[in-house]
């Protein structure tokens, strides 16, 4: 990314900064943080209203870009006035200083802006008095003939890094400080617009807490809401991995919506102080940047479950949707009232996303701590079972698998309708090659929650291991229909088709899989598994050099991971490099690979199926 050349364009930009923030922070940290929250919330709303985009927030300041100078000035004046009014809620009023400029900007790959125009806007802002919107001479030249704009000359000022330039205090007639459109584009009513929104992305909630140590909490809440909304049949919700890849970026909501392929975005922030939590959320129409709904929740931390439910249901109401009778029971059900236990559960969930042996071991400890605090926490028991399953798959240790059985049994005892518990049980049975027992658990999970991706995906893997290829294919296809952006099911569909001898279909499936993997890597540039599976697909498609490059990239990112090493050996097998393939398979086994039943059905080893060394290694796997 660092070598990507910058693009250039002409843009109107402004910097806004909170007056007196440092002094307020020294005497009242809580009030100062409120000032930042108000700035961020108001900026997002105002900038979108005037067709601009937030480039970035920098402490108590914000940089914004607009397609025209007129829109930039109107937005700046509107923000300045609104901020004074809303900042009163912090105990006393504060104002902003805003500098507006128009000129050439350089645009980075992540949407950030650079160049003289950005520097000029920052220096102009520094020259402003509290409450002033100061425009450069270039802005004045473009708007001086427009009757709604008023400019009071301040004379020439010498600005650091800019030089002498004429500055003007800018104001706008009240009747002209309005959004460019009173209704969304197309002259649709608000209700008509909402009815057309049937896909959504949930972005990670920003951590605005004083210590900046609540990311796991914000992520957990956002993910719980995402998972709840994903259960609504009439709404497609983008996957967590894709949505959370936009953490901390300055990319405009419309661009995020385009990349995710969704109509709307839910974004928010969380600030926790002692036993109080403030969550601010807003629903944005990603097609035009308009705000559809927003709310702020100031509650005790014990109310966190009610807040999550309220947010999710408010989104459904805002989109004109409703839950079916079947969806209501599984929508958003808290299985603990112990907030401290819930926090350990969220920490464990976040650790799981890193997908390394060490992170899963830490997640296991967090799940165990949650259970110590609330022994009746069914979701934590299910999470613990899943952790043990994956630790077994890495090391093949029997105690882990027995612990997985025990934990999933306890989860099902506590909550027989918890689909995740049945998935964990199905995985552990599959590891023991008890495929009929595994099938029963996966079927029950799907019955309880037909939207649960993991149920279809791991059921499909179990069927593949058992040699039931036709059923595995149907289940991988169902997993992909539940989560269309998932690259793993896409790649495995191609594998199953190839094993079934449907070569032409497998070729087309590989082409679709590599498109899915490329898109995933746009959001997750350092994910070893994506490069790993992608290398296999590229090898099948005959793109030898690219396959080797991706294979090397995967192994450099996770050099000791047995699954990565196994897939790397598959790449060599497909490319016909026997010695490297067999040496790689042996290395994967030594690193802890389990599951000879998978390897024996893997079509990537077709050329080496009768090789004595391959057969010896498979036998070694099946005995492990």
Question: Helices and strands in order, then pairings?
Answer:
Blueprint: E1 7-18, H1 21-27, H2 29-49, E2 53-58, E3 61-66, H3 69-87, E4 96-107, E5 113-114, H4 116-126, E6 133-136, H5 137-143, E7 149-159, E8 163-172, H6 190-195, E9 199-202, E10 206-207, H7 215-229, E11 236-237, H8 240-244, H9 253-260, E12 264-273, E13 276-285, E14 291-300, H10 304-318, H11 339-352, H12 357-373, H13 378-395, H14 398-414, H15 419-431, H16 435-448, H17 453-466, H18 469-482, H19 487-499, H20 503-523, H21 528-540, H22 544-557, H23 562-574, H24 578-590, H25 596-599, H26 612-623
Runs with pLDDT <50, length 5+? 175-187
How many H/I helical runs?
A: 26
Q: What oligomeric assembly is this protein in?
A: single chain
Rounded to an integer in angstroms, the radius of gyration calculated over CA atoms is: 28 Å
In one word, what is the shape?
globular
Give the % helix: 40-55%
Strand percentage lies at 15-25%
* End-to-end gap: 43 Å
The largest sheet, given as strand count, sense and whether it forms a barrel, is: 8 strands, mixed
User: Structural class of the secondary elements?
Assistant: alpha/beta
Mean pLDDT: 86
DSSP strand tally = 14
